[in-house]
Design goal:
alpha+beta; twelve-stranded mixed β-sheet
Length: 289
């Protein structure tokens, strides 16, 4: 019998696993922010399919969780190799069709290998990411010309378009209409800051999640390709980081693409320090005749 308790009921899941998630806010930043978004935006915030949640329980204690919001990759908290294998076997038996997995490096690799063994899927590393936590914030030097401004309703079309451009650039499988819903949700709580030129032209944006268990995560940071190299994204990131701290966040976090040395160096100059490495694996189902 599997030790995994699986449900589609968000409130039941949080009632069972919420304390576990809150026990390590930085390590659990993704399931914390995803479940918070589902609470505020409804069960189809990330796509038309219903989300699924799971908790690994032993002796009445939660040891790990997963959150699945199709079409996005399965998100997993750290698991041992045998537990990752058991979960992959269980989800395959239940008929889940996973697009991939996102987890700490060792857990992601263990689960991807197990998924391949149990389903015959082809698996590959899509990208490596590093989680950072803000230490002492250091303002960019020099600060580029312009100023920060919290995005409002008048910016909806722009930030929706930039969100989709960001998702495409990093290879995320965002639904075609994801940008509008994302923009509406972020505007509602002031979750996007623009860096604009002295004449008011938007040059870059930095988003931030709602605070959950004391943590917020900066995401995404986007500058159109033709405007990069001038420090606009870094200035927007510094401003949302400062504002999050001022608003009472205990931890300010962000992920970077390990293949992008420029962004990793930038965030470290701003005062972000590494927490750990994560991997996104993509799964392709086996061919059928």
């Amino acid at each position: 019998m599997s030790d995994w308790w699986i449900t589609g009921d968000l409130e039941a899941f949080l009632g069972r696993a919420g304390a576990f998630l809150r026990s390590r806010p930085a390590a659990h930043t993704v399931p914390l922010t995803v479940t918070d978004a589902l609470r505020h935006r409804g069960p189809h915030a990330f796509g038309p399919a219903d989300p699924v949640f799971g908790a690994l329980e032993r002796a009445g204690r939660v040891e790990a969780v997963f959150v699945r919001t199709p079409p996005w990759a399965l998100n997993l908290t750290p698991l041992s190799g045998p537990d990752a294998d058991a979960l992959a076997a269980h989800l395959a038996e239940l008929g889940h069709d996973l697009a991939g997995v996102f987890a700490a490096e060792d857990t992601a690799a263990a689960f991807a290998g197990a998924w391949q063994r149990h389903t015959g899927a082809t698996v590959r590393v899509e990208r490596g990411q590093r989680l950072y936590r803000l230490g002492e914030l250091t303002a960019p030097d020099p600060v580029p010309p312009g100023r920060p401004r919290v995005a409002g309703a008048q910016d909806r079309e722009l930030i929706a378009r930039w969100f989709c451009a960001f998702a495409e650039a990093v290879g995320d499988r965002a639904p075609a209409d994801a940008g509008a819903g994302w923009a509406d949700a972020r505007i509602a709580y002031g979750g996007v800051t623009l860096w604009e030129a002295p004449d008011g032209t938007p040059l870059a944006m930095a988003g931030v999640t709602r605070r959950s268990a004391g943590q917020v995560r900066v995401a995404p940071v986007y500058t159109p390709a033709e405007l990069r190299g001038h420090g606009y994204g870094g200035a927007a990131t510094a401003e949302v980081s400062r504002a999050a701290r001022a608003a009472g966040a205990d931890e300010v976090l962000l992920f970077t693409d390990l293949a992008n040395p420029t962004s990793n160096a930038l965030y470290q100059r701003l005062g972000y320090r590494p927490v750990g490495d994560f991997t996104v694996w993509a799964f392709t189902p086996p061919a059928t005749d």
